[in-house]
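so my prof wants the structure for this chain in the tokens format not the other one, which i didnt know existed until like an hour ago. anyway here's the sequence
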Amino acid sequence: MGESSIAEGKYLIVLGIAAFIGALLATVQVRRWAVRHGFVDHPGGHKTHVQPVPLGGGIVIFWVTMLPMVAALLCAVLWSKTSVPAFLPKSLSQHIEGLAGRTRLLLTLIIAAAVLHVVGLIDDKRPLGAKFKLLAQFAAVSLPVVVGGIRFQFFITNFWITVLLSMVWMVVIINAFNFLDNMDGLSAGIGLICSAMILSAAWTSGQVFVSALLLILIGTLGGFLVFNFAPARIYMGDAGSLVVGLLISAATIQTTYYHEHSISGVWFNTLMPLIVLAVPLYDFVSVTLIRLCQGKNPLVGDQQHFSHRLVQRGMSTRQAVLTIYLATACTGLGATFLNQLSSQGCVLVFVQTILILFIIAILERPAKI
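here's what i got, hopefully its the right format
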């Protein structure tokens, strides 16, 4: 690793720490504001908490992640047209032109995040219909996919096929993290773990911009999680979970997983996101199938999520959340080694992931008396 990469890494770590501190301080203020203005999540229905809990965590997540992106983009565009300030280190100034060249990509991603954030805020205050939320999600992701160029392009050359696959993938991941927001600290913690795993691939590929986005998200989720872990003192709501899902899905598409020095075949490496997100996808698919088999709308909340099923088996909320954390970390850690393994080694990682999901299925299955 060269001196430039080491310097870049240090600045990115500082960026992540700043996001952590910013989220920590912002959460304190937003929580107070939510309590004063009655922006709280009341118990009842499919919800498991028994006391009103302040909402507004989504406000923290959106602004702490978006403000650095907006500031960096504005500075890059300005300095690319004038001159780079002398105080900016060379390890950072060398990326100004590249960042300015990604204006359309970042701008469309920021707009999509803003749309989902607003839709989430409205839904947190007054629940919207499931169909409307789904349409809003597709409308939001269509901008970064079609206009911003955030789409799968590695194997498929047909434009509309890549657009469709990318939009479906992003909406699925958005809903997967929205589904995970059903228990204290669950969605934020899983988002942090998955972001860290994807970060390992992005940094290995030399993708500074994707790495920066992921470190901002990791820091933000870490700061928020201090107040969101069980017993939660604030919830992120849809205003946060939709944004988290969007950013993680965009990062999985933009990250390069295959390198010329990779030992295994191309297909093995590019499947890394499926392994990293195996547990969130398991929850999404399993609860969707359960609801469909019961004749229910799969997008309407209930207490049949993976986490709820673990609690029904006798676990406490913390135990259930930590179990899902560990399962996600186990599958994700295997995925980080894909580009260093032979084809046979990659197959073993895939088998290991499936076995972990089978263990999960056994743990949550009710015992027959």
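also thought this was worth mentioning. The first helix runs from residue 3 to 36.
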